[in-house]
Amino acid sequence: MAEESPRACAEPVEPKATAPPERTSDYYRVSADLPGRFNNPGWFRGYRTQKAVSVYRTSNQAYGSRAPTVHEMP
């Protein structure tokens, strides 16, 4: 008599829904003519980390290495 494992009979689990990206207007009062790129900081790309070539890190490199959040937008 062949028995099936409980995992084989179980229905596949649906992936969890992801939270919508944070918007600046969720936290702050903004004007209606605020450009979309400032209201949606998650749209910014290019904030990848690269291997540091120097033996020191400047404050500009440290600040610029992080992607913007809703609290840092104009």
UniProtKB/TrEMBL annotation:
Its main location: cytoplasm. It is found in: Cytoplasm, Cytoskeleton, Cilium axoneme. Residues 1-25 are annotated as: Disordered. Coiled coil: none annotated. GO terms for cellular component: axonemal microtubule. The keyword Disulfide bond does not apply. InterPro entries: PIRC1/2. Keywords: Cell projection, Cytoplasm, Cytoskeleton. Microtubule inner protein component of sperm flagellar doublet microtubules. Interacts with CFAP53, ODAD1 and ODAD3; the interactions link the outer dynein arms docking complex (ODA-DC) to the internal microtubule inner proteins (MIP) in cilium axoneme. Belongs to the PIERCE1 family. This is Piercer of microtubule wall 1.
